[in-house]
Amino acid sequence: MAGLQALIRPDCHNAALERALPQRRSGEGSATTPLWRGLCHNAALERALPQRRSGEGSATTPLWRGLCHHAALERALPPRRSGEGSATTPLWRGLCHNAALERALPQRRSGEGSATTPLWRGLCHNAALERALPQCRSGEGSATMPLWRGEDQASMAVPGRKGSALGAVLALCCLILTSCPGATSTVAADCPDQSPELQPWSPGHDQDLGVHIGRGEALLLTSSATVHSISIADGGKLVIKDYQEPIVLRTRHILIDSGGELHAGSALCPFQGNFSIVLYGRADDPGAQPDPYYGLKYIGVGRGGTLELHGQKKLSWTFLSKTLRPGGLEEGGYFFERSWGHRGVIVHVIDAKSGSVIHCDRFDTYRSRKESERLAQYLSAVPEGRILSVAVNDEGSRHLDDLARKAVTRLGSKHFLHLGFRHPWSFITVKGNPSSSVEDHIEYHAHGGSAAARVYKLFQTEHGEYFNVSSSSEWVQDVEWTEWFDQDKVSQTKGGEKISDLWAAHAGRICSHPIDVQATTMDGVDLSTDIVYKKGQGYRFACHDLGRACQSYRVRFLCGKSVRPKLTVSIDTNVNSTILSLEDDVQTWRPGDTLVVASTDYSMHQAEEFRVLPCRACAANQVRVAGKPLYLHIGEEIDGVDMRAEVGLLSRNIVVMGEVEDKCYPYNNHVCSFFDFDTFGGHIKFALGFKAAHLEGVELKHMGQQLVGQYPIHFHLAGDVDEKGGYHPPTYIKDLSIHHTFSRCVTVHGSNGLLIKDVVGYNSLGHCFFTEDGPEERNTFDHCLGLLVKSGTLLPSDRDSRMCRAITDDSYPGYVPKPRQDCNAVSTFWMANPNNNLINCAAAGSEETGFWFIFHHVPTGPSQGMYSPGYSEHIPLGTFYNNRAHSNYRAGMIIDNGVKTTEASAKDKRPFLSIISARYSPHQDADPLKPRVPAIIKHFTAYKNQDHGAWLRGGDVWLDSCRFADNGIGLTLASGGTFPYDDGSKQEIKNSLFVGESGNVGTEMMDNRIWGPGGLDHSGRTLPIGQDFPIRGIQFYDGPVNIQNCTFRKFAALEGRHTSALAFRLNNAWQSCPHNNVTQVVFEDVPITSRVFFGEPGPWFNQLDMDGDKTSVFHDVDGSVSEYPGSYLTKEDNWLVRHPDCINVPDWRGAVCSGRYAQMYIQAYKSSNLRMKIIKNDFPTHPLHLGGALARSSHYQQYQPVVTLQKGYTIHWDQTAPAELAIWLINFNKGDWIRVGLCYPRGTVFSILSDVHNRLLKQTSKTSTFVRTLQMDKVEQSHPGRSYYYWDEGSGLLFLKLRAQNERERFAFCSVKGCERIKIKALLPRNAGVSDCTAAYPRFAERALVDVPMPRKLSGAQLKTKDRFLEVKMESSRQHFFHLRGDFAYVEVDGRTFPSLEDGVQVVVVDGRRGHVVSHASFRASALQGVPRQLFNYVSAIPDNSIVLMVSKGRHTTRGPWTRVLEKLGADKGLRLKEKMALVGFKGSFRPTWVTLETEDHKAKIFQVVPIPVLRKKRL
Fold first, then answer.
1. 8 Å CB contact between 749 and 711
2. Distance between CA 732 and CA 757 in Å, rounded?
3. 932, 958 contact by CB (below 8 A)
4. Rounded CA Rg of the chain
5. What is the number of alpha carbons within 13 Å of residue 1270 lying toward its C-beta?
6. What's the pLDDT at 50?
């Protein structure tokens, strides 16, 4: 029965079948016996087989219904049994998913088959059946025969089983075979190694043997071999034999072309054994002649060549379905590490039942004896049975008294009683059981070097799970190698070079007492070195080359750093293994396979590799792996964002790998300067005209070279590789793992239509999934995973900052690298053309970016000329759906920038392919004159990216249903629709979620610079950049941007960290479009004070003095942000936008306004360093200073103020006015106007005209000439072709009225006819001074009016959150009524007015928790004189956490004791009051941001909001 047991067990997964078949064969079974229950999930088969075996069955008996899900089989079998069937009947189609079986079986029935015929290959994935069945038919088999290859031999002999087991197999075989009439087998088409034309080939091992397989040769490699090279051409074929013994083929290269073919398995007959191609050789091997096209160490597939590699079907990658915690404990492991700043005795109290930490505390017994007393009390209070881990970090003995020493001694310690200065000491015990103690103690004398006291102890939880508690108290001395120093001279000093001399020559770069030294020749060959110390002479080192002193060599030194303390406490499972729970069925992952689990924190380096172990208890979606995780890997959705770690399979049964050296050797100029390992791996290259290429189930390791063109997989200028190119089936690479590579993962170069599916790229140098020159289109990346993508040296975009500065060979002399501009762009998915598809892909960790769409204005490299200039910037985006990016440094996704497509020159010294600016504007057919086509990004997830979740620049980029969490900045929409780059477009995001600080807190590491308190609960967590970095959900930049139906969750600012859901780009010189708009947004766990932040001078914001910082604005369409529907939110001091009724929001550093707004772009030519001052005539005391948006090196400067329409302005300069000026009307609708006065020197003569410029057609049409008028009012008039200007030479102001003449589309910056422009040329007098005409005020001042009334604030049920704004209005003024004058004052709270009826001070008190007015009172002016006890008593009785509003009326005492009340309510000390005063104050234990005091001689006015409830922000 052993043979049958082996037969059944691995197939269709039904162990009961092995017991059922013997009973049936002896006739003792019945229809109720579960013979075939579960076989391919068809229970009906158990009733059908007995009838069929006795010949009583009929065509109506559902014998095979549903077998392997093929209903037609029930109709096919009866005709076959009677001999009436034919070879074309699809009898076995789909049986265990192997179509070839229907053709294989007839050959067996006719007796022509042999043991080598793959009759059963792939049946339930067990190739060994092919040898068992023929013997079954002849009756020659036995129970001991290895019927099912791959089954453990021990399972072949099961005591108590009868020999009739084989008879059962025979009966089954006969049943199958008798149903199939004779036909010609075509199995070789599916299983290439079964072709009868193949000749066995075993060339042995000869590194000098060059093999050519040519015409008429078809070889079957049957054993491992080593040859020099293999050439397959002229119809030659090499096939790999598929059987149990592994085959390893070592060769320097394989070239397949001119009809040559290499096969291992096929799509219908996957290779089941183990086959490896090892490409060997060094780049500098003597006699190695690189092929001019392929180079060295390659598999090359040229014109007419075929490469078919098809390994076992295995799941490529999936997700964790359960969070994996450090240490692997079910309840979560624990890891604690501290260094400097955490001195003293540190105690952990651990629950013995669960292994979880109950409490942790530190006692600084170095600083204070009170801490020693507290330690003794703390230990005494710990209940018995608790586990205690006690250890010293840094120093803890100085003030350690006997009480504490004895308390620890009673716990079981033998060394704590005599603990000395800075002694490492660790101790673990169970309270109440001193005998359970483990302890280690080291006497350390601070002489340098490392010392450690380590203990660990095994425990068991109440559920029987073992866990290990370990503790380490250490002094650590880290070491590091210096850089390499070139030595050009032979030492003339006996005994070698003095290190002190070298130290003096390289001050600060070499240590005086090195631990070790290394030396190499300039070519990288190791040399012998010695370090010696001679008393009185110090340290020396000597270098020897074959017994002689070295000449022209490089040397570096291993230096010790200063010692530092380190304390580590960890709790983990004792068994060195972990169960991974996964989303998918992973039964194809076998013991010995290697997995990688991606990071789910900010650092990509938290990805961890594991080896799969056997696991009988694991479910279908579980595996046991060796080792324990060091980091937290999330396996769930957190706060609405899927943060599950990707888990990739690295192992495959077909392997292509490069054989590498133990360390780096310099085969190019720079490689060993950046890598200490060999990077000269193998590579696979497909050339134009290859016949067929399909790779699946293949592992590529140590592939790629730090040479351009030598990549693990490289489709090189192959053209169309799908049906369009005549490929049937289309070319694909599927189910691959490409890991530990030296140059990219997959390169698509000048090739189109390639399918890259289920590919895992891990630990690679340079861009991983890479499209190269720009013309690559229609390629599909489906369900690909890339992680741990590091910088490489090949292209500027591959390089990190150090490489960028060092590698300047391809630049023009004098080039000064700017790494963050020219380089620093290595990405997991590098898309040089938008017209490619990315679906279900994951970019799980890159040194820079996950997905980067980059633009080649013209094709580069050998693809030059393949499209017209600008094509890639205008081609619509392919499908981008359900992709995710996390653990990247720069961004999860970028759409922006281009590459320099010209060689370095004196004009532009940057290297070829450096990063430059570019704009994306998708249009139909890539034609900018045709309609726009929005680029749709749907279901994109970005989390834990340090800088940006996504930075997307371009016209019409729309996001839908996306998720962003824990990014430094969730999303920046940098619209390309900013003139002069584009005439206007829009970007939008809708139906999306933004999370500021999620429940994924990450893993704390020692001395972690980005670990700090979270905003909501103040608990520790990893942070994206720094503790005070202002985390933002969406960042406005450029515009117009539309934000619709988005949710913002868990954004909470701290004192010192300005977190906000909505914000603006920091240090921004560019404009902010007034058509930026927000509607239907929802805030959850976002304090109302953290919804928006406009910035303030300080860290990260600098001086907040750039033009874009000052002009930021957006439209709150429905009031879902500010509670004022239809309002505009602007920076609080932007008086070009403000009007008298605007309401300040101090927490946001902004204001809520109403109005109609547009922009001017003022271009001053030949004057790039001018600063402009613009004044709105109704607020002449509040000018706006602009420095210009462009670099000082530009030939002109551009100023971009947002202005209120139908208003007057004057413009001034800090130097002489520019002689040539252009004013563009941006976002003006037809009929919109502003009046402008421009300052010029007296004696200036003007030439002014207007025109319309169509940028796309590059046409300019003159529309009007301006003539001078002597009447100011006449500038209001205009006639076709003629307008007027007024030159007020006395004030120096040139007045124009600027009116838009044409209609404008909704999101366009300019009119339908083009951009309307006014051009001014001025003939300036010589030696003219500064053009500042502000002395013209108050002559040209205007009365401040509110043209668009402020909207009514939402209230009650209209509000969607528990917190809200309280509207506060206060005014104290002197008003004129004809010839009468009177004082006027009031306080208004949420529309309820409290007028001041008499001179003095009125006070209104509001409950800071609920926003209700609780009291109000008036104090006459006379009551404020002397000691105003009445006012003092009233204010003293006000409860804490109260908002106190105070306004004065008429004459009142501006000095005296009563003003101390203002100080108690938050006003600055030492204040000086003027005649009018208004105060928004607070009585409580802190001073809120919104406390405001206004005091003026004629009018004091405060319109602002106060957050309800009033809460204190937690401190950073």
1. no
2. 8
3. no
4. 40
5. 0
6. 39
Which residues on adjacent β-strands are paired with residue 1034?
Answer: 971, 1062
Separation CA 234–CA 907 (nearest Å): 51
Secondary structure of residue 797 in the 3-state scheme:
helix
Nearest Cα to Cα of residue 156 among 130, 137, 128? 128
249-263, 511-525, 1110-1124, 1203-1217: lowest mean pLDDT where? 511-525
Beta carbons within 10 angstroms of residue 1169's beta carbon: 13
Q: Which residues contact 759 (CB under 8 A, 6 or more apart)?
A: 316, 733, 734, 735, 736, 737, 738, 745, 746, 769, 781, 784, 785
pLDDT at 1233 over 90: yes
Nearest to 713 by CA among 748, 739, 757: 748
The helix (run of H) or strand (run of E) holding residue 771 is: strand 769-771
Pairwise CA distance, residues 294 & 646, whole Å: 35
Q: Which amino acid is at 728?
A: H
pLDDT in tens, 503-528: 777 777 888 778 788 888 877 788 88
What value does the mean pLDDT take over residues 781-792?
98
C-alpha distances out from residue 1313 to 1037, 1253, 1258, Å = 26, 8, 12
Length of the chain: 1516
User: Which of 489-493, 1072-1076, 1421-1425 is modeled with the greatest confidence?
Assistant: 1072-1076
Give how far the C-alpha of residue 1117 lies from the chain's centroid of Cα atoms, to the nearest Å.
Answer: 32
**227-249 confidence digits (pLDDT tens):** 999 999 999 999 999 988 999 99
Q: What is the pLDDT of residues 257-277, one digit of tens each?
A: 999 999 999 999 999 999 999
Continuous segment of H or E residues that includes residue 1430: helix 1429-1437
Q: How many CB atoms lie under 10 A from the CB of residue 466? A: 14
Instruction: Say how far apart CA 295 and CA 279 lie, in whole Å.
Output: 13
Asked if residues 1235 and 1310 have their Cβ atoms less than 8 Å apart, the reply is: no
Residue 229 and residue 281: Cα distance in Å, rounded? 11
SS3 for 724-746, per residue?
HHCCCCCCEEECCEEECCCCCCE
Q: What's the CA angle centered on 490, arms 484 and 494, to 5 degrees?
A: 110
- What b/e sequence results for 1034-1059 when a residue is b if at least 16 CB atoms lie within 10 Å of its CB, and e otherwise? bbbbbbbbbbbebbbbbbbbbeebbb
> In the structure encoding, which two tokens stand for residue 404, read together?
């504490």
Give the residue from 1456, 1450, 1491 showing the smallest Cα distance to 1473.
1456
CB within 8 Å of 805: residues ≥ 6 apart: 817, 819
Q: Quick one: pLDDT at residue 1039?
A: 83
pLDDT at residue 416, as a whole number: 95
Helix axes 45-53, 17-25, angle to 10 degrees: 30
1093 forms beta bridges with: 1063
Give the type of residue at 1451: R
Please tell me the distance from the alpha carbon of residue 314 to that of residue 1242, in angstroms, as a whole number: 83
Q: Are residues 995 and 1050 in contact, defined by beta-carbon separation less than 8 angstroms?
A: yes
HEC-encoded secondary structure of 1318-1363: EEEEEECCCCCCCCCCHHHCCCCCCCCCCCCCCCCCCCHHHCCCCC
Best CA proximity match to 32, nearest among 46, 19, 51: 46
Pairing of strands 1143-1145, 1150-1153: antiparallel
* Six token digits for residue 1470: 């030492």
CB contact burial 348-373 (16+ within 10 A = b; e otherwise)? bbbbbebbbbeeeebbbbbeeeebbb
pLDDT in tens, 979-1000: 655 666 789 999 999 999 999 9
Look up the pTM and report it: 0.81
**Rounded to whole angstroms, how far apart are CA atoms 386 and 356?**
11
3-class DSSP state of 839? strand
